[in-house]
Amino acid sequence: MRRRVLLPAFALLVAAQASAATRIHLSLILGTASEWYQGADKWKEVVEKRTEGRYTVRLVPGAAFSSHSQSGELIDVQCGNLEVSLESTILLATLDKRWAVFSFPLLFPDHKTANAVCDGPVGQQMLKSLEDKGLVGLAYGVNGFRQVTNNLRPIRTPDDLRGLKIRIPQGLPARIFTHFGASAHHMNFGDLFIALRTGDMHGQENPLSVIAAARLSRVQNHVTLWDYVYDPIVLCVNKRFWDGLPEADQDVLREAAREAMNYERKLVAKADAELPKHLAEQRMAVARLTAEERAVFRKRREALRPYFEQMAGKALLAEFEQAVRAAEEATE
């Protein structure tokens, strides 16, 4: 009899523990084939394993809970309708203009340097600033270096941009392209393909992984590899939700985030190295700027400095540039 009583009691205990698991929804704007999703899935795997199921993570690709809107997704995390999301620093600049420092053209020379700056004091200072917006930034991943495509001509000099109509995402300063003589237009990414096909837009800019996944080679003839903006992503958590977690669990979730985002960074760096060949095979003309050609853009960029200093802060931009120099010297 005793055994028959204990078994149901044990089953009830297990059921109670399972129902007590904390569910976390992690939303991201990209789909399941993206490096973003693979990084999110790695975080889910590590969190669930290390907490022995006390936390379960449900991935929400395509910002499906936020009407497929990246800005809506960010608001949902701020408000607590979602617990976690992956957000580009370009979108975070719509909350706090200081994040526009990442969009200062040609700030970062390569992935290694950029990652070192993000993981260093000035990058962590930026994560800390999110708390004023109701968010906690756990770790940086990356969307990739942003490149430009168009269907008219190769772009190798600033003057080659003159007259082109370029689609850009919300949060990216239009001034970057208008400074070089192009016209910049904020447009929903979902409307971009048709705009390129009809000629309403001549071109657009995005990391190579997005260009390839969206099959823009069907409506774009040229891609220029100029690495003009390094676009990190941040694993963001609703602050009220975060503050309600035990400190030990916060440590586990944060360490899992760093591991997952480092994994995602490696995937993106690999894609950045391999995708130019893939796009060439899709009949896109691939132009990779030489050091001399990048130097011309960098020189012309200096006229944009006052604009970015006013928006992001003169001292902050100087801190980032110093951090870039220090990271480069550390690898010499």
Largest sheet: 9 strands, mixed
Computed structural class: alpha/beta
CATH class: Alpha Beta
- What is the residue-mean pLDDT, rounded to a whole number? 93
Write the element-wise H/E pattern from the N-terminal end onward: HEHEHEHHHEEHEHEHEHHEHHH
Shape annotation: globular
**CATH superfamily label:** Bacterial extracellular solute-binding protein, family 7
Sequence stretches where pLDDT stays below 50 over 5 or more residues: 1-19
Q: Which architecture per CATH?
A: 3-Layer(aba) Sandwich
As a whole number of angstroms, the C-alpha radius of gyration is: 22 Å
Strand content: 15-25%
Query: What percentage of residues falls in helices of 4 or more residues?
Result: 40-55%
Number of strands: 9
Q: What is the helix tally?
A: 14
Number of domains: 1
Task: Assign the CATH topology.
Answer: D-Maltodextrin-Binding Protein, domain 2
**N- and C-termini, Cα separation:** 75 Å
Explain what you see.
This protein is of the alpha/beta class and 332 residues long. Strands 1, 2, 3, 4, 5, 6, 7, 8 and 9 form a nine-stranded mixed sheet that branches. The protein has one domain: 3-Layer(aba) Sandwich (D-Maltodextrin-Binding Protein, domain 2), CATH 3.40.190. It is built from 14 helices and nine strands.
Summarize, please:
The protein has 332 residues and is of the alpha/beta class. The chain has helices at residues 2-19, 35-50, 70-79, 89-92, 111-119, 121-129, 175-179, 192-198, 208-213, 239-243, 247-281, 291-301, 305-312, 314-330, and strands at 22-27, 55-60, 84-88, 135-150, 165-168, 183-186, 203-207, 222-238, 285-288.
